[in-house]
Amino acid sequence: MQTNGKTVLLTGATGGLGIAIARTLAASGATLVLSSRRPEELEGMMSELPGSGHRALVADLAAEGAGEKLAADAGDIDIFVANAGLPGTGKIWERSTEDITRVLRVNLETPIRTTHALVPAMLERGQGHFVYISSLAGKAPSPRSSMYNASKFGLRGFALAFRQDLHGTGVSASVVLPGFIRDAGMFADASMKPPPGMGTGTPEQVGQAVLRAINKDRGEIVVAPPQQRALTNVAHAFPAVAAAVQRGQGEKIAEQLAERQSDKR
Questions:
Q1: Residue 148 is a catalytic residue
Q2: Which entry of 130, 132, 148, 187 is annotated as an active-site residue?
Q3: Cβ atoms 26, 50 nearer than 8 A
Q4: What tens digit of pLDDT does each residue of 160-197 get?
């Protein structure tokens, strides 16, 4: 499916990845409906994007019924890019029930419920595309990230199974899995450097991956250097080995990251 002339609903639009995705899609000729909790930043983004007709929707995706409201407010949509997410880091017993609800709703429930509201019209037209921004944390577990892993594993599983259900309808779905991203993502938000020796991707590479997923109808795209891909595959196949390797320094980094994200829940 080509994005030129299509209308795209993008959540998490004012984050580092969201900005890069928005710029890439707008440059490809798409008209964007940008969703975020930050009205001033949304307005600033729209004035900088190429093209015209872009709109802003201020929305808290952690609210009950947020997915259905977002779909209704967005109107006719050709492409949905579910990018909004919360870190959800820390030990589960140190999190409140409100924290747990918020993470699962923003990262998993609202993308699914927005999809549920949008897909009937796409099926009727016989055209449309859904893109879900998961993470390599959707394939490999890591310490102090049980809630984040749960939501990203779940989003990846939903996207791939949903894609199977859509086969032959003219509508499709993709999942994009970023690894460590410089200048955006959890480590950037926490003012920390990713673990040494792992390499990083860029927000622009994630934006291009989203565009490629739509244009080429790719089921899954990983945005990460080769060493991250290889280690993730090992961790996915041998989680006990990965857990043993991450004890010690890996847990210290995870503890620091969780502490610095304590105000982002």
A1: yes
A2: 148
A3: yes
A4: 999 999 999 999 999 999 998 987 756 666 566 766 66
